[in-house]
Protein: Chloride channel protein
Amino acid sequence: MPSNSKSLLRKFLIWKYKHIPEQNFIYILSILVGFLAGLGTVSLKNLTHYIQLLFELNFFKNYQNSLYFIFPIIGLLLVYIIKQTWLKKHIGHGISSTLHAISKLNGIIPRYNLYASLITAPLTVGFGGSVGLQGPAVSVGAALGSNAARLFHMNTKTRMLLIGCAAAGAMASMFKAPIAAIIFAIEIFSLDIAFTSLVPLLLASVSAVVTSYFFLGTDILLRFELIDKFQINDIPFYIVLGLVTGLTSVYFSKVFFGITNFFKQFESRAKRLLIGGLAIGTMLYFIPPLYGEGYGIMNNLLKGDHLSAIGTTPFNLDLSNIWLVIGLLLGITAFKAIAMTTTFGAGGVGGVFIPTLVMGSALGNAFSKIINNIGFHFNVSESNFTLIGMTGLMAGVLHAPLTAIFLIAEITGGYELFVPLMIVSAISFAITKYFISHSIYTLKLAERGELMTHDKDQNVLMVLDIDKVIETNFIILSPDMKLGDILKKAVAKSSRNHFPVVNEDNEFLGVIRLDDIRHIMFNADLYDKVNASSLMHADTNIIDYNKDSMNDIMDKFKTSGAWNIPVIKNGKYYGYISKSKLLTAYRRQLINFTK
Structure:
């Protein structure tokens, strides 16, 4: 930042400190962050839209099926070139990366995230990559919230709150659903539900929605007007739909992790691009509805126009056969998860949220068509079941049942379907939770002990920096060191009462405590006869710097009763953690969480 700008910022901060109460300034920042998050989301949508408009020209339409194969590969290649030559940084999945920043980086998100997804996501989606824009929108918004907090020197707790405000803003701007956006921020980012955090979320959400209306007018992504009312006789069908969406959510998650692990075995990004690009092109050629985000599928199914939703296929299929239509809709459901994850594996940038809704809409519509055509004269609302299917997939895949309920309720413009929304989302979430403990956003973070939850004690431990509690100023002994040298070079010069013993490769062998040598330390006859290897004893509790979380470390202190435990890093001795220092750091961090 130029010196003039720094000087102005310094003057503003001094003025702000004197004239604006801290809470009021947080409200102002939440409005600003909501506006910027809304602006970022609008920019993402417009850039993607303009790219897609190019491919609707008559020249491209003449070769549409062939280009379904080519365009996604071109988009992925452009993203690859930008990453390799300009950004030279990793662009993670928006929501997962944001959760990691909250839990392990104190909410500090690098500045390049302000523009990285803004450039690469429209290229991925605009050229037909089978992913969504919600994740990148959250990534851009979260980076805005984090860096705004840093610019104005806000504390860690406020920085995390502003990230949540930005996420709510991105969601509200994308769907024009401010209530669902607030619930999304609370449910996904585990924000405390308190008045002090709720008001900023409300302000950010409203600010983002107003921004979206200002730039996009009343146009919304999902256009639906509820016509068919909820029928009590349909409850058994909704229960079955909940079971089906739950099992499909498990399938979605398994496919996501399976394909992700498959691509991880290729270290070369070029190989991932080649394999993934060819796979995506092949899928899109045979199943064109997988192209891009998939809003066309959802909107057409909600209107009851399944022919437009399925579109033109490379085969001359008889779409007057309803069972063939059902089969194609189930195929879209199955392959959307594969196409989406393959896009990620090939290096594309996008989100999971919208593909989840696409799968849910196709599954719900196919389910209703099966009920209406099995020959028992049932007649359920296909549009309602399409909506409820979206709810079930969202609740299961994202582990966000409340977000799913309120998003669909807001989209429909009322709460007529609230009962089936709750039934399906609850069943789907319960089934998915039974088989997969965490969502695709959070599973890897949870396995590493880096997931922020509503458990305040666990969150405090998670954000503790292990490097700040490790003490390295211990005098190290070698195994062949004599007792006399131990007393002269270690005991006499240290205020510590224990000394680590390591070999020439700095591998930890054991420890000598002052109590171990107190009974012989004044026996001069033993000074040249007894060495460290005969005096040391193994430490049964060892902390692995690379594997143990702060929660694991606290458990080791509880179970062992030890006051000091050695730390091993990359197989080498690194230092010690003392219980007193760990508890002091814990208490300080707890104050930051509760004040």
Notes: The mean pLDDT is 81. Residues 300 and 308 are 6 Å apart (CA to CA).
